[in-house]
Design goal:
- The complex is a heterodimer.
- Chain A is an alpha/beta fold.
- Chain A has 12 helices and 13 strands.
- In chain A, helix 1 runs antiparallel to helix 7 and helix 2 runs parallel beside helix 7.
- Helix content of chain B is about 45%, strand content about 20%.
- Chain B contains 5 helices and 3 strands, in the order αβββαααα.
- The chains are: A alpha/beta, B alpha+beta.
- The interface between A and B is medium-sized, with 30 and 31 residues.
Chain lengths: ~400, ~120
């Protein structure tokens, strides 16, 4: 077993070797290097065939029509295109948008930009389990609401929003519904025939495809219109210009094809590993799982070890590649905005660790992680004045701290 | 973020971890920071009748740099007079541990901790 062990599959995944091989075939003179838009010769036709196959493989995973897939550079661009594209196109209809405080920054910052342009945005508070109360969503819908943007699976806490129910609410009011599915595609079954979702963002690198490529599903029934963000040769039906990156698209297509084939088996194995990890941490007191445990992908375990600061724990767990909910690693001292939105107090938010498991996680790796965590939590708590006070029965809230 | 070897050394082998009885008159306790900010440092000093710090203990909740700053501080204050200890500057700690700019506040906290511990000791006299 090689260390460090990768437990950060929600950040990115390695490219599956089968995907990498297909990509390599689209680069050199011997390969399929043509421009898919070159309609005058065979190099172009072959490249177009390859991107069409990929478009079909992506559409197949979500039971959509290939014509509804628009390639972008990734989920960030897809989110920008969906939100700003819809807002700009439909601005005469209304200028109100609804999203949630726990969305990815690509959604939140797109909304912030629209606010600067004169739009009004409602940021819903999730419940303490990370899920949205549908009644609270209904309550903020307005006649001038043009778009609701809610993610399918949260990147930090892995909870699954009920996008079927939300879609029914928005469709009835003829409000467009955008879903950021970067963290759910290939992990949660998605059937666009059954969902009333108008726009959906995808990323390749979260499911064993390459970085730098993503897609936006743009529904045709009912037809969704967008104002393009990127202008040029009119690729992707005018919604996103730029030469199609054949190798990237082929990689994404193959990753999505494999995901469709292997999702069920992968999920079952990963669930077993997640349960093994959870059971291994069972003996540690004062731990709190962040986010609902039922409506959740098995790939994610976000857990707060009370009285231990997240960054120091990550340092102790240097053989494990995990991420901290605490943003102390950046210049800001703010803990995770997602955990704060759940109402977690700052201490617990500062003490959180996200483990994310994936296709290549093994039982041996889980067992190694369990033993490392158990060894180090005790050591760090011995160092922690908060732990000592907790053990002495002192209420930490009763102390006047000197905030800095 | 990459830590300097000195931070890693103090983090993995922290010096002078522990507690002393805060009610003793020859013990000064300084607790600074806040859980909400992600770091709390508690520094305790044991002072002889002629004003020399003969022992120091710490406990810190915080990142590796905060733990290292307080660990280093306990080494530095031992054997110093109260006046000498009060002159320890955060910049010296930051320099010794090669703290990056985003971790300077850890050294500031350590300076605050020794000042608070000295004040606590003096207030008991």
């Amino acid at each position: 077993m090689k260390t460090p062990i990768y437990f950060d599959y929600s950040a990115t995944t390695p490219v599956d070797k089968r995907v990498a091989e297909k990509m390599c075939d689209c680069l050199t003179t011997e390969g399929n290097f043509g421009n898919p838009a070159s309609s005058s010769h065979e190099f172009g036709w072959k490249a177009e065939d390859a991107t069409n196959q990929a478009r079909k493989d992506i559409a197949d995973l979500i039971n959509a029509n290939p014509k509804e897939i628009v390639f972008t550079s990734g989920a960030t661009e897809s989110n920008n295109l969906a939100i700003k594209g819809v807002a700009h196109f439909y601005k005469k209809k209304g200028k109100h948008i609804i999203t949630c405080k726990t969305e990815h920054k690509a959604v939140l910052d797109s909304c912030r930009q629209l606010e600067r342009e004169g739009y009004e945005v409602t940021y819903l508070d999730p419940e303490t389990n990370g899920l949205i109360d549908l009644d609270k969503l209904k309550a903020v819908l307005r006649d001038d609401t043009i778009l609701v943007s809610i993610m399918h699976v949260n990147n930090e806490i892995g909870v699954i929003q009920d996008i079927k129910a939300i879609g029914e609410i928005t469709r009835e009011r003829k409000i467009l519904f955008h879903v950021d599915a970067a963290q759910s595609a290939g992990k949660v079954p998605i059937d666009m025939e059954e969902l009333s979702v108008d726009l959906m963002s995808f990323s390749a690198h979260k499911i064993y495809g390459p970085k730098g490529i993503g897609a936006l599903y743009v529904g045709r029934k009912p037809r969704v219109r967008l104002e393009a963000q990127m202008h040029g040769g009119g690729h992707e039906r005018g919604m996103r210009s730029g030469t199609l990156a054949t190798h990237q698209i082929v990689g994404m297509g193959e990753a999505f094809r494999l995901a469709k084939e292997e999702m069920a088996a992968d999920n079952e194995r990963i669930r077993m590993l997640r349960d093994r990890l959870l059971k291994g941490l069972d003996g540690i007191e004062e731990t709190y799982i962040n986010g609902d445990m039922e409506q959740r992908i098995p790939h994610n375990l976000n857990i707060s070890f009370n009285f231990v600061e997240g960054e120091s724990l990550i340092m102790a767990l240097k053989e494990l590649a995990v991420s901290s909910g605490s943003a102390c690693t950046s210049a800001s001292l703010e803990p995770s905005y997602v955990l704060r939105a759940l109402g977690r107090n700052d201490e617990l938010a500062h003490s959180s660790i996200r483990f994310s498991l994936g296709r290549f996680t093994t039982e041996e790796e889980i067992d190694f992680a369990v033993s490392k965590i158990n060894d180090n939590i005790g050591k760090l708590r011995e160092l922690s004045p908060l732990w000592e006070m907790f053990k002495d029965g002192i209420d930490l809230d009763s102390i006047e701290w000197t905030a800095h | 973020m990459a830590y300097s070897n000195k931070v890693i050394d103090h983090y993995e082998n922290p010096r002078n971890v522990g507690s002393m009885d805060k009610d003793e008159t020859n013990i000064g306790t300084g607790m600074v920071g806040a859980p909400a900010c992600g770091d709390v440092m508690r520094l305790q000093i044991k002072v002889t009748d002629d004003g020399i710090i003969e022992d120091a203990k710490f406990k810190t909740y915080g990142c590796g740099s905060a733990i290292a700053s307080s660990s280093l501080l306990t080494e530095w204050v031992k054997g110093k007079t109260l006046d000498e200890a009060a002159e320890i500057k955060n910049t010296a700690i930051a320099e010794e541990l090669e703290l990056p700019p985003v971790k300077i506040h850890c050294s500031v906290l350590a300076e605050d901790a020794i000042k608070a511990a000295i004040d606590d000791y003096k207030s008991k006299k």
